[in-house]
Structures are given as structure tokens and as C-alpha cells.
């Protein structure tokens, strides 16, 4: 039986390498090894954390950045790097939930983020294939045609210079038309992030990798057992690891899938393509597809296509396991882009879907000096850049026009239905305490595989190494007590409630959990007992 080598969670948050991390490995800096005092502590060295550190350093602040992996080893290294003001939620929904003025501010903030990224690329001389391109939003077959017209009108009111176009290089879409978003952008995600990390270091920032922050408070954090004291703390960890409950009722974790297929250079123009999402999906996020090109070599480009989302740890509820999502995604992609050749890359990533469409960026509720950036949805690159400037302005005392829009303390009453639906879904997952286990006992687990075993109220997460030895842990997520589920695609144990993920050694990969799965000493008969 073919097995898979374990992945290095310091470099990537899953078994599969993304195109970005394979062609530009994440940077490792020194691990923290002493007590530290600084002005600002930034937890997380992804796009949000490093951009925030960059702007804070330029504002004259002393900054320390810590990450439990390498720089970009989390979700930034697993993005598809669409740099756009075309949001994965509709502008007419933002108008309904917030206001027309807020929709205009949302468009303005993301457009400004594109300009900020371009400026950083230029000022820091980052070679990352940055280019301006057009984006094209077309109708999903389940979405009424009138909704695309509504979105066009809403983008116009928001100040985006959209127009109607036939999407280039793509087989016929409904009505053979799309909303064109001019002057969007793309880049090589890890080349950009590595360049940003080097700029942070050059400006005097201290980056510590493989340095895990715990016990985050308004005074700092414990990092690898050492005290890091700070006047201001920024938690930029995709899912906020400083918060136990409040923020996790406002957003939900989703797993999204990506393939990278070769296509002859020149067969397609460089562009961004999106559909409007499956309106018949069981998920409140209406999963959609998103596509772009990336230069590969002299003869080929890489067509990067993503989608087939589901709530983290809940793929089985659609009877479509994680590893089979790529097959469905490839079939969709070939239907619209028939000129693609072999699929070279497969990977997945995790996004936090806010219940009211917009990210949460600013002061953590209840704290004056703790800041968070989360709820990025499918716009992590621009949201992360918005966060960098917004949080810097809050810390140094500058006014920022987007402070209220992205305020993490906001309450959107018009999204009560989705809020109730998501919380009911979370509550349902606790029934796993009493449900049937994956397997009766560990003897059934093959090398390179994992499962939840044990009886009711005694669930264990077990993984068998290639050499036949067994790793056994409590299956109870240390965040809020859900039972984790085995993800056979990325070789991880995933929490279906709030998205915490753990590797085959039980070590936490994604928050909100901050501690590992509890080690158990069970040794089945097949292991010599």
C-alpha cells in the first residue's frame, strides 16, 4: 500500500504543498530563546501580520513578530492570491446588511489595498510576478440572471468602474456575459511574502519563527515559555487564538480546494474569473469557483482553479470526502477551460467566513490594546493589506475611514438568520460525543491513515505511522470540546465546530485551539500488547 510521508507543519499546514510553497519555500528565522520587551507584539507571520509589522515599523514602532511555523506557513501560503475589489459576497448584500455608503467604503478599501501592494512591490523591489489584470464575474447556473444585473448596479453605486464583457478564453457562460472589474491584480504569493518579511527585518523588526504564542493577554504573551511583554498586541492568526468564544460565533471555518493544471502559454489571457456561487448549496456561504493564471515556464502557464468548499470537518455531510473534491473541481474546470492539460498541483486551504460579509479588523472586543484581523473570507490578500494599515493607524492614533466598517465589535441584526443557521450547525456537531466512531479499534487503521476510535464519551484520535507504530490522542478539541474528524486529504484531525486543526502528532495547526490534542497511552493488541 502506498503511504505518504508526514508533512512538516513548520513549512505548511497540510500534506499538500501549494505551488507557492513548493517554488518559494517559507522563510525560517531564529526561534525565541529569552524574555523580550517591545512596543508591539504581532502574533502571526502571514499577510496580515507582516503587513501590519511593515507599516508599524515605518511609523517608528519597535515590533516583534512571532509565528509557530515559518513565515507564510499558514493560510497565506495556501491562497490563490487574487488581489481584487470584487468580493466573494455581493455588493448588493453589503448594501442590504450595512448601507450603500458602507458598500462604497468596502470597494474603496480593497481598491486602495491593491495600490498599497503595488507600492510595496515597487518600493521594496520584490520580484513576485505582480501584474494588473482584469477580473470577470459570471453567473452560476443556479443564480437568477437578475442577480448579476443587481450586482452590476451595486458595483456602479460603490464607485467601481465595472462594465459588461464577454469573459475571455472561457467556454460559454450563462448569457455569455460577465461583469468586468478592471485593474485588478495578481502575484506569486510566497515571493511577495518572503520579500515583505525581508523588508520587515531590514526596517528593524524582529521575526521569530517556530515560536508559539500562548496565554495572550493585554500585557503580551508566553512564547516558547518565555515572556514577551508589549504595550500593544496584534493577533493575526487567521482564526483569533486569543479569543475563546465571542468572535467564533460571528464567523465559520470553511475548507476550499485548489488544482493547478498546465496550459500552453498564450492559450488564455492573464485574468481572474469567478462564478457567483451555488445558490442551492447547503452552506450559507454559497461556495463559488475562482480561477487565474500564473507564469510557469517558457512553454506553459499554470491555471489555478479553486472551489468545492465545505465547512471544515464536515465534508462527509455531502457524501463527498475531502480527497474527492479535486476530481469534482477538475471536472468543473475542464468544462469551462478545456485547453488545460495535466494537473500538477492539488492543495486546500482554510478560510473564515464572516456572517455579515466583511472582515473583522481592529480592537478585540473588550480590549483597548489588543487588535485582531480575521474573517478574511475569499479576499485574504486585500483584507490582510487593509488590516496592516488600519491597525497601524489605530495604534499610532491616526484617523482611518474604515475603522467603523471593519470593527470586530459590530453586530449585524439583518444577518440573524445566517447567524442562527451557523450556530445550529455548530451545536449539531456536539452529537459526535455519542455517535458511532470511524472504526471499532486501531487494528483496522492502515499505515498513513487516521481515524476516530473508541466508544461513546471516550473518543480517541489515532494515526498509524508508515512504520506501523500508532499515535493516539484524545479526540476532544481543547478549544470548546468538539470531537475532531480525520481529514484523509491533508492528513490532519479537523474540528467541525470552529476549525481548529491538528497534525498526525496531535500538534495544533490552526486555531482557535492553542494547545495540542492530549496524548493517550492506549496500545492496541496489534502493537504488541
Structural write-up:
The chain is an alpha+beta fold and 529 residues long. The chain contains 9 helices and 24 strands. The strands form 4 sheets. Strands 3, 4, 5, 6, 11, 12, 13, 14 and 15 form a 9-stranded mixed sheet that branches. It starts with 18 loop residues before the first helix and ends in a 19-residue tail after the last strand.
Q: Helix amount, in percent?
A: 10-25%
Provide the β-strand percentage band: 25-35%
Q: Which value, in Å, is the CA radius of gyration?
A: 22 Å
Tally of DSSP β-strands: 24
**Uncertain ranges:** 524-529
Main beta-sheet strand count, sense and barrel state: 9 strands, mixed
Structural class category: alpha+beta
User: In DSSP terms, counting alpha (H) and pi (I) runs of 4 or more, how many helices?
Assistant: 9
Task: Assign an overall shape.
Answer: globular
Question: What is the average of the pLDDT values?
Answer: 92
In a nutshell, what does this entry contain?
This protein is an alpha+beta fold and 529 residues long. It is built from 9 helices and 24 strands.
Amino acid at each position: 500500500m502506498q503511504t505518504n510521508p508526514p508533512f512538516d507543519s513548520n513549512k505548511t499546514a497540510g500534506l499538500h504543498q501549494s505551488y507557492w510553497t513548493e517554488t518559494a519555500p517559507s522563510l525560517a528565522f531564529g526561534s525565541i530563546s529569552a524574555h523580550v520587551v517591545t512596543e508591539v507584539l504581532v502574533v502571526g507571520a502571514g499577510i496580515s501580520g507582516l503587513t501590519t509589522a511593515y507599516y508599524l515599523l515605518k511609523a517608528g514602532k519597535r515590533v516583534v513578530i512571532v509565528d509557530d511555523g515559518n513565515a507564510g506557513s499558514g493560510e497565506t501560503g495556501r491562497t490563490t492570491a487574487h488581489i481584487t475589489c470584487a468580493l466573494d459576497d455581493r455588493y448588493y448584500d453589503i448594501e442590504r446588511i450595512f448601507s450603500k455608503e458602507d458598500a462604497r467604503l468596502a470597494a474603496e478599501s480593497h481598491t486602495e489595498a491593491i495600490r498599497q501592494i503595488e507600492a510595496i512591490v515597487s518600493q521594496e523591489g520584490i520580484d513576485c510576478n505582480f501584474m494588473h489584470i482584469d477580473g470577470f464575474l459570471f453567473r452560476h447556473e443556479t443564480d437568477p440572471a437578475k442577480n448579476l444585473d443587481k450586482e452590476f448596479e451595486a458595483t456602479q453605486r460603490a464607485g467601481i468602474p465595472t462594465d459588461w464583457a464577454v469573459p475571455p478564453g472561457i467556454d460559454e457562460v450563462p448569457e455569455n456575459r460577465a461583469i468586468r472589474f478592471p485593474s485588478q491584480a495578481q502575484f506569486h504569493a510566497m515571493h511577495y511574502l518572503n520579500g515583505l518579511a525581508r523588508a520587515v527585518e531590514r526596517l528593524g523588526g524582529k521575526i521569530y519563527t517556530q515560536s508559539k504564542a500562548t496565554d495572550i493577554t493585554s500585557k503580551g504573551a508566553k512564547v516558547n515559555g518565555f515572556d514577551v511583554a508589549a504595550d500593544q498586541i496584534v493577533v493575526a492568526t487567521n482564526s483569533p487564538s486569543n479569543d475563546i468564544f465571542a468572535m467564533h460565533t460571528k464567523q465559520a471555518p470553511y475548507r476550499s480546494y485548489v488544482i493547478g493544471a498546465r496550459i500552453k502559454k498564450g492559450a488564455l489571457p492573464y485574468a481572474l474569473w469567478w462564478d457567483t456561487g451555488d445558490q442551492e448549496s447547503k452552506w450559507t456561504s454559497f461556495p463559488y469557483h475562482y480561477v487565474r493564471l500564473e507564469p510557469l515556464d517558457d512553454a506553459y502557464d499554470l491555471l489555478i482553479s479553486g472551489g468545492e468548499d465545505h465547512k471544515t470537518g464536515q465534508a462527509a455531510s455531502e457524501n463527498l470526502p475531502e480527497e474527492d473534491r479535486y476530481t469534482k473541481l477538475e471536472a468543473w474546470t475542464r468544462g469551462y477551460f478545456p485547453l488545460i492539460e495535466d494537473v500538477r498541483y492539488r492543495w486546500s486551504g482554510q478560510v473564515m467566513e464572516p456572517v455579515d460579509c466583511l472582515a473583522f479588523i481592529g480592537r478585540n472586543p473588550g480590549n483597548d490594546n489588543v487588535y485582531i484581523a480575521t474573517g478574511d473570507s475569499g479576499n485574504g490578500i486585500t483584507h490582510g493589506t487593509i488590516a496592516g494599515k488600519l491597525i497601524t493607524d489605530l495604534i499610532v492614533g491616526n484617523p482611518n475611514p474604515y475603522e467603523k466598517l471593519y470593527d470586530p465589535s459590530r453586530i449585524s441584526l439583518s444577518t440573524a438568520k445566517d447567524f442562527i443557521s451557523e450556530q445550529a450547525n455548530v451545536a449539531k456537531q456536539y452529537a459526535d460525543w455519542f455517535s458511532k466512531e470511524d472504526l471499532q479499534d486501531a487494528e483496522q487503521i492502515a499505515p498513513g491513515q487516521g481515524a476516530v476510535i473508541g466508544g461513546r464519551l471516550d473518543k480517541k484520535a489515532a494515526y498509524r505511522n508508515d512504520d506501523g507504530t500508532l499515535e493516539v490522542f484524545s479526540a476532544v478539541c481543547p478549544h470548546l470540546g468538539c470531537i475532531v474528524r480525520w481529514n484523509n486529504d491533508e492528513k490532519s484531525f479537523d474540528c467541525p465546530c470552529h476549525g481548529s486543526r491538528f497534525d498526525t502528532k496531535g500538534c495544533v495547526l490552526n486555531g482557535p485551539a492553542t494547545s495540542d490534542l492530549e496524548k493517550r497511552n492506549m496500545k492496541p493488541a496489534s502493537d504488541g500488547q
